[in-house]
Design a protein that fits this description.
CATH class of the domain at 584-611 and 670-853: Mainly Alpha
Helix content: 40-55%
Region (Disordered): 27-56, 615-640
Strand content: 5-15%
GO molecular function: enzyme regulator activity
Radius of gyration: 36 Å
GO biological process, one term: proteasome-mediated ubiquitin-dependent protein catabolic process
Keywords: Proteasome, Repeat
Shape: elongated
Protein name: 26S proteasome non-ATPase regulatory subunit 2
CATH topology of the domain at 584-611 and 670-853: Leucine-rich Repeat Variant
Length: 948
């Protein structure tokens, strides 16, 4: 230890002596100066570095302050006006304090004393203005506002933009203090007046973002509508809509409503544009018949002419000719195996796949080569058996999608055949055709209600699911509140039916239909009746896969309602395990669908980290024991027991005595792995609405695939599909392609179907090649090959003109019925062997129709010959990749890499359209779907002159 100290001292002394030698040898340079010397030099040279102009300015300011300190009040006005002129005339960089403010800072306290002795009047107010500006350099947080209120109330921008920003910063802090003391009304009024001045200044100087920020901070966005002009309303609304996803409830709804009111104030034609958007969401309103625009609004809201606009797009693209499944499969390009056992071409599963593919590919065109172009279409139905005939007959609903008049007349001939399966499929086809269309005659209800209570269960299946699809997300009073002849009223009676035809399958589909119709409404009455049906079932009855769809219906009712679902989440958790926890998790994720809620995703990931032993694992570890009779009504353990008691009491049921709880090795281990599958699906469902969340979810799924349980791996492909519906990203396609070859059959099946969802309606060439290779790989497996064919049909859906993506209007709006559709089919695939792939419930594939929408842009203008009516017009538009322009200055380009087309045009995922010239003005900032235009009164056509 002593040697080390001696050694260190020696080194230190040696360095010190060397330093002295160098110092003595040469003069000290700037680099060799110590920090203390530099600081001394800086302090000493500070006065010397001042220019003559700065010295003169400092002397003048000191003289003016001295004059204000003198008793002669006649000098005050001249001195203060000179001070004001010097401060306003100062110019400096953005990173330094102006020279007059820097030199006046030592006199700040003295200026406040001077203000107190000046008598009331204009001179005193002028002094307050100057102190308000000087306060920007002081430590007093509210002096800038206080002396501004006491000042001359001159235009706020006269002191510069930095002064306005400083006022806004202090205003938000002061407002929070005022909120806590509501009795100070005068102070609140003064701050509101100052807020109006700040907002007016920001809007006038193209700083709308700062104006919005100020009003959001003080929660007074209503003031914004007074100052927004027609020219800049789109920038303001775009910023408000971009802030909404980052704002908690209920503030986000205030932002959205403010944007809506600003849009509505700009033009009355927007009522018709909003009627079109509501029709896109399948929300049909009851308009006042005394309204002058009643007929026009009803027609725009009903989607009655949607098929005509779609056909005009198809004719423009020259794709009206029907296609057959063989033209989609292109089997001649698949790798042939001359010595292998090829699958039978007319097998039941291949015929079923052909029916679905034919419907998907020719969806909405009103023509195909299997039913509409043949004399006896039913002959094609008979290639299938039982439920296969139902699915084949229902495919005609896809062909006649949206065309109610022609479609129902075509389906009518099949309602009188002798086969119940074909009749049931035709009833389902009627629901598919009517889905998303409002007809004043309600033909779907008239044709389907007679079979809701039929003695033949197969007819009830077709009519119940058909009603659910026909009236999905319908908010009309005639559907929801009619107690005598309403869809909800009729379906509720099916839940209480005890006849043999009211099978578990019928009741499960009834619950699903109620969920589709009431999606996102949070209707507690309907949800409680469905919950009571579940609570009356025994544990063995709840194990029926159809009961899961009844619980799914409850979850869909609370889609997007967030915390309004908490009571039902806990009530469902009280049901016997594993059914109760799985359904509670499903309801919870539905309530937060598309919100990107990070806390919920963390909770779901925690569920996925648990390990549950399956029945096979328990058999391996435990020895056979004497059989014991299970309890009649087991009560869940822990906190669920209290929830169960509360739920039974709420329903007026007597709780059954609880069985003694087993502990230790004798305690039965419940397999809750099904809850994990729902949790994985929920991660995709919640994260699908936010770009950053989607990217993070992709990384999480990579970990779940590597380290998760088998049930988790099976659910990951479906969750990936939810993140990227109709958007075939390369990394997701590669991942799904890898798992489509997985050794686990369920994982491979889900991956194949997920590939169809990811590429739905895109005609993606890479995906088409992948599916063709998969068809060769799975040529011996009938189930996998059927799913490959269905995925091929989805990829070519509408011959590449449609999408399943629930987000539209530049990803600003989410369609509840489309989300419900995608969730239903993915939830069914979590247990595909008991639903889609069990040769019975493949008709559930038709729930996808609620998400099918043409990805087109059609422009409409008012007909000059028939005022009030809208007619289609072709205008030039630029179509390119969307660019984020939120809060950017000026008018930046919103697209890049664009091409110019004439409407109607197709829009791919991530593309945005804008008008190519100023001849028309759009009623919506997002050119998607049906867009109403109006003539620009300020447009001057460009005249090209040629020299002779």
């Amino acid at each position: 230890m002593q040697k080390n100290i001696v050694g260190k001292n020696f080194i230190f002394c040696r360095c010190l002596s060397l330093n002295k030698m160098v110092t003595a040898a040469e003069p000290k340079s700037e680099l060799s100066k110590t920090v203390e010397e530099k600081k001394k030099d800086a302090k000493g040279e500070k006065k010397e570095e001042m220019s003559e102009e700065d010295k003169k300015l400092e002397e003048d300011l000191n003289l003016l302050v001295q004059r204000l300190s003198e008793p002669d009040s006649s000098l005050y006005r001249a001195a203060l006006e000179t001070l004001r002129t010097l401060i306003r005339a100062s110019t400096t960089s953005m990173t330094s304090v102006p020279k007059p403010l820097k030199f006046m800072r030592p006199h700040y306290a003295k200026m406040k004393q001077i203000y107190e002795k000046i008598p009331s009047g204009e001179v005193k107010q002028l002094c307050a203005d100057i102190i308000s500006v000087l306060a920007m350099t002081s430590d007093e947080r509210t002096d800038t506002i206080n002396y501004r209120i006491l000042g001359t109330n001159e235009p706020i921008g006269n002191w510069g933009h930095e002064y306005v920003r400083h006022l806004a910063m202090e205003l938000s802090e002061e407002w929070k203090k005022i909120i806590e003391t509501p009795e100070n009304d005068k102070r609140r009024l003064d701050l509101l007046n100052l807020t109006r001045l700040i907002v007016a200044h920001h809007v006038k100087h193209n700083a709308e973002v700062e104006a919005c920020d100020v009003l959001i901070e003080i929660e007074r966005l209503d003031i914004l509508k007074e100052y927004v002009q027609e020219v800049d309303h789109q920038r303001v609304c775009l910023y408000l809509m971009s802030c909404a996803p980052l704002t908690p409830d209920p503030d986000n709804m205030i932002l959205i409503r403010t944007a809506m009111e600003i849009y509505l104030a700009s033009d009355p034609l927007l009522r018709k544009q909003m009627a079109i958007l509501l029709g896109r969401h399948q929300i049909f309103l009851e308009y006042d018949s005394s309204d002058a625009d009643y007929n026009d609004l009803t027609e725009m809201n009903s989607n009655a002419h949607l098929y005509e606009y779609f056909h005009s797009l198809a004719r423009e693209l020259d794709i009206m000719d029907a296609k057959t499944p063989d033209q989609i499969y292109k089997t001649h390009l698949e790798h042939s195996r001359p010595f292998g056992n090829s699958s039978a071409p007319d097998s039941s599963r291949m015929n079923l796949a052909a029916a679905l593919v034919n419907g998907f590919v020719n969806c909405g065109f009103g023509v195909d080569k299997m039913m509409t172009e043949t004399d006896d279409a039913s002959r094609w139905f008979y290639k299938n058996k039982d439920y296969g005939m139902l699915t084949a007959a229902a495919s005609q609903g896809l062909v006649w999608r949206w065309d109610v008049d022609s479609g129902l007349s075509q389906c009518d001939r099949f309602l009188y055949v002798n086969d119940d399966f074909i009749k049931a499929g035709t009833l389902l086809a009627i629901g598919i055709i009517s889905s998303g269309i409002q007809d004043p005659c309600d033909p779907a209800l008239a044709l389907l209600e007679d079979h809701i209570h039929s003695d033949r269960f197969i007819m009830r299946i077709g009519s119940v699911l058909g009603l659910g699809l026909a009236y999905a997300n319908s908010k009309r009073d005639t559907v929801v509140k009619n107690e005598e002849r309403g869809v909800i009223f009729e379906l509720k009676k099916v839940l209480a039916d005890t006849r043999p035809s009211a099978t578990a399958e019928v009741k499960g589909l009834t619950g699903l239909s109620l969920g589709l119709i009431l999606v996102g409404t949070g209707d507690h009455t309907a949800a409680m009746e469905m919950l009571q049906t579940l609570m009356e079932r025994s544990e063995a009855e709840l194990a029926d896969p159809n009961m899961r769809f009844l619980a799914l219906g409850i979850a869909l009712i609370f889609l997007g309602t967030q915390d309004k679902s908490e009571v039902f989440v806990e009530t469902l958790r009280s049901l016997p395990e594993p059914f109760g926890p799985m359904m509670a998790t499903l309801l919870d994720v539905c309530a937060y669908a598309g919100t990107g809620n990070v806390l919920k995703i963390q909770k779901l990931l925690h569920m996925c980290s648990e390990h549950y032993e399956t029945a096979e694992d328990q058999k391996k570890k435990t020895k056979p024991k004497r059989e014991q009779t299970p309890p009649a009504n087991p009560v869940p353990s822990g906190t669920n027991a209290a929830a169960a008691a509360a739920a039974t009491a709420a329903l007026g049921m007597e709780p059954k005595p609880a069985e003694p709880k087993k502990t230790g090795a004798d305690a039965p281990k419940v397999d809750l792995s099904s809850q994990q599958a729902v949790a994985v699906l929920g991660i995709g469902l919640i994260a699908m609405g936010e770009e950053v969340g989607s990217q993070m979810a992709l990384r999480m799924f990579g970990h779940l695939i590597r380290y998760g349980e088998p049930v988790i791996r099976r659910a990951v492909p479906l969750a990936l599909a939810l993140l990227s519906v109709s958007n075939p990203q390369l990394n997701i396609l590669e991942t799904l392609s890898k798992f489509s070859h997985d050794a686990d059959a369920d994982t491979a099946h889900n991956a194949i179907f997920a590939m169809g969802l990811v590429g739905a309606g895109t005609n993606n060439a890479r995906l088409v090649a992948m599916l063709r290779q998969l068809a060769s790989y799975h040529h011996k497996d009938q189930v996998s090959l059927m799913l490959v064919r269905i995925a091929q049909g989805l990829t070519h859906m509408g011959k590449g003109t449609m999408t399943l993506n629930p987000w539209h209007s530049d990803r600003q709006l989410l369609s509840p019925s489309a989300v419900a559709s995608l969730l239903t089919i993915c939830f069914a695939f979590l247990d595909a062997n008991n639903s889609i792939l069990n040769n019975r419930q493949h008709y559930l594939m038709y729930t996808l129709v609620l998400a099918m929408q043409p990805r087109m842009l059609v422009t409409l203008v008012e007909d000059e010959l028939k005022p009030g009516n809208l007619k289609q017009v072709g205008v030039s538009v630029r179509v390119g990749q969307a660019v984020d322009v939120v809060a950017q200055a000026g008018k930046p380009k919103t697209i890049t890499g664009f091409q110019t087309h004439t409407t109607p045009v197709l829009l791919a995922h991530g593309e945005r359209a804008e008008l190519a010239n100023d001849e028309y003005l759009s009623m919506t900032p997002y050119l998607e779907g049906l867009v109403i235009l109006k003539k620009n009164p300020d447009y001057t056509p460009h005249v090209v002159t040629t020299k002779k």
